[in-house]
Design goal:
Elements lengths: L3 E4 L7 H7 L3 E2 L2 E5 L5 E5 L7 E5 L5 H17 L4 E6 L18 H12 L2 E5 L17 E4 L2 H11 L4 E4 L5 H11 L3 E3 L1 E6 L2 E5 L5 H4 L3 E9 L3 H12 L4 E9 L5 H7 L5 E3 L13 H16 L1
Parallel strand pairs: 1-2, 1-5, 5-6, 6-7, 7-8, 9-10, 9-13, 13-14, 14-15
Antiparallel strand pairs: 3-4, 11-12
The structure holds 1-O-pyrophosphono-5-O-phosphono-alpha-D-ribofuranose.
1-O-pyrophosphono-5-O-phosphono-alpha-D-ribofuranose binds next to strand 13 and helix 7.
Length: 301
């Protein structure tokens, strides 16, 4: 029997491609709020003995997490055979240690709560910095997919020579992967973060050959406040680059970050459809289909 695909938001750009591609039956879910703001959920589909997949946008997790947990727990109570989570963007990964005494280790707490309600989880390029794998904090089977091949494919379709630029050491993995596929040169900068919106990015010396390209493409995993990219744009402008683009797997764009980046002279802002509402150029659904099948198969064994 086909799996059931549920989401609290049926307008998520990945919902229909996953329904069609898996294929999966769209789960019938009523989700609304009571006048006091509390969530009301009612599952209309018969879920007994069925594999259920929940597609979730976690880019605004503080309002999205509780209804997600209500949904997963309800599917389980109603007799679902398994409940798996597809969270293309995985939130709460940046507080991966106590930087100051007494801080909440939110990455670990979030992972514990998700692991209590879900049987498995698939995500794309989670911010793994001081953790080496999700298994350090998630106790359920997880699968991490790399967005870089999809980014590289977009780049090869565009066919414009450019210098690939990673703003910080963490971005090296994506920039290097894309450079290997495209044969384009790359550099990686050094970032110092002093606060949420207080970062400095310093790029290494740029060779004459690299500068002669005039076109640069900044590659990063996630854009939040946009300050990492703003700093990188400023460095590239000082080095004489006239066409600056930015490509990121996850475009969160907190506040007016998107507009600030465009005002700073960014030519194109290329993001995937992991998060709704950003005119995505890169479709992640082809990446997700096979891993979801594999998770469903292993949930049976
Ligand atoms: O748009 P912004 O608000 O600048 O945030 C996005 C940046 O933050 C993350 O790294 P972070 O600076 O958290 O570094 P980390 O690898 O030390 O966690 C991420 O890799 C981006 O580079």
């Amino acid at each position: 029997m086909m799996p059931l695909l549920f989401s609290l938001d049926l307008t998520l750009p990945l919902f229909q491609p996953l329904c069609d591609g898996l294929p999966a039956e769209a789960g019938d879910l009523e989700y609304r709020h009571f006048p006091d703001g509390e969530s009301y959920l009612r599952v209309g589909s018969e879920v007994i003995g069925r594999n259920c997949i929940v597609l979730a946008d976690l880019s605004r997790a503080d309002s999205q997490f509780l209804p997600l947990q209500f949904l997963a727990a309800t599917l389980r109570e109603l007799g679902a055979r398994s409940v798996g989570l597809v969270a293309p963007y995985l939130c709460y990964m940046r507080q991966d240690r106590r930087f100051h005494t007494g801080e909440a280790l939110t990455s670990r707490l979030f992972a514990r709560w998700i692991s209590q309600e879900m049987d498995w989880m698939i995500t794309v390029d989670p911010h793994l910095h001081r953790y080496h794998s999700l298994a350090e904090i998630y106790s359920i089977p997880t699968r991490v997919l790399a967005g870089a091949p999809a980014l590289a494919e977009w780049l090869s379709r565009r066919g414009e020579a450019c210098l690939l630029v990673g703003p910080d050491a963490e971005s090296r993995q994506w920039v290097e992967g894309i450079a290997a596929k495209s044969g384009l040169p790359f550099i990686v900068g050094r970032k110092e973060r002093r606060g949420d919106r207080d970062v400095t990015v310093k790029l290494p010396d740029i060779t004459n050959e690299q500068a002669a390209l005039h076109s640069a493409l900044i590659v990063d995993d996630v854009i939040s406040s946009g300050h990492t990219i703003l700093q990188t744009i400023s460095e590239l402008k000082s080095a004489g680059f006239s066409a600056i683009d930015c490509m990121s797997v996850h475009g969160i764009f907190a506040g007016d970050a998107r507009q600030q980046l465009l005002n700073a002279g960014l030519r194109n802002l290329i993001v995937s459809n992991s998060i709704p509402g950003q005119s995505p150029a890169i479709d992640l659904s082809p990446l997700l289909l096979e891993p979801i099948h594999e998770m469903l198969a292993s949930a049976h064994t």
